[in-house]
Design brief:
By secondary structure, the chain is an alpha+beta fold. The protein has 1 helix and 5 strands. The protein has one domain. The strands form 2 sheets. It has a 3-stranded antiparallel beta sheet with strand order 1-4-5, with no helix packed on it. The chain is elongated. It binds zinc ion (ZN). Zinc ion binds next to loops.
């Protein structure tokens, strides 16, 4: 499941509804820490009024879901 549009409708800091998304990729990607290639860009919901980052999430859920599944197998 990919979340492409902003879920937050109003900035809790300034009350603005002018919210858009930004992508943080390249060296700033979040990785699973296991091997190269298993990483995801970050998606931020950004208030265009005050610049606050309202929510940060990974764009590629599958990478982290796969890691979680492996983690779970070890625990069982
Ligand atoms: Zn704001």
């Amino acid at each position: 499941m990919h979340i492409k549009s902003a879920k937050i409708k109003e900035c809790p800091y300034c009350g603005s509804r002018k919210i858009t998304t930004g992508i943080q990729a390249g060296y700033a990607a979040v990785s699973t820490g296991r091997f190269f290639g298993s990483s995801s860009p970050l998606v931020h919901d950004i208030c265009t009024q005050c610049g606050a980052i309202l929510l940060t999430r990974v764009d590629r859920l599958d990478v982290f879901q796969a890691k979680y599944e492996k983690q779970k197998m070890k625990e069982d």
